[in-house]
């Protein structure tokens, strides 16, 4: 990997394109502390997973407008109830106009409820598992979700974690363009080797600037034309 541009220079470019440093600071993502993440009930983690999964490849506005219906249809995302979803429940949900009736995505609710139960059994709660995961191994958390959760590979996992307030990066098109510019990767990173290089670059910028990965990610995105 070639020498990275100093983060201060990247930030200056991004801020210049967004009305100055103060205005740009106001657009940086809001992240939660470890204590705040640990306090999030498991049903809200399941709701966040489901929201990100249904938003993928679909209108986010439609999902937002229907979200009260999702909450009602999926029993408030009670993890125990969702994990026990029966074939009759699935049939009913496939006819429920309060939600987007995509069978494959509906099934993920039960599968991800079971995954969250496994995290809770090991860590005390799903929230504690996410809270304790170090940002410097964000790619490890992405891999955990890809391997053990349902439909949470790639950017779906990244957006889910960002929406929940977990510190990490989102490999949007503009962030990838910035990483290519910096010589970190030469294409959108999908292999574990390339993702490790991305993590290394983010960790270096974090050490240099003291900023969380989420702020670095947003800065990179806004630094490209």
Task: Briefly say what this structure is.
With 225 residues, the protein is mostly helical. It contains 14 helices and no strands.
Could you explain how this protein is built, in words?
This protein is an all-alpha fold. It has a domain at 35-127: Hypothetical protein, domain 2 (Endonuclease III, domain 1), CATH 1.10.340. 65% of the residues lie in helices and 0% in strands. It has helices at residues 7-17, 21-25, 34-38, 42-55, 60-73, 79-83, 87-93, 103-123, 126-132, 138-148, 155-164, 173-181, 192-209, 213-222.
Q: In CATH's first tier, which class of the domain at 35-127 applies? A: Mainly Alpha
Kindly identify the CATH topology of the domain at 35-127. Endonuclease III, domain 1
Distance between the termini: 23 Å
Number of helices: 14
What global shape is seen? elongated
By DSSP, the count of extended strands is 0
- Which architecture of the domain at 35-127 would the CATH scheme give at its second level? Orthogonal Bundle
What class do helices, strands and sheet pairing give?
mainly alpha
Task: Indicate the low-confidence ranges by residue numbers.
Answer: none
* Cα Rg: 19 Å
Q: What string, H for helix and E for strand, traces the elements in order?
A: HHHHHHHHHHHHHH
Query: What share of residues are in beta strands?
Result: under 5%
Largest sheet: none
How much helix is in the residues?
55-70%
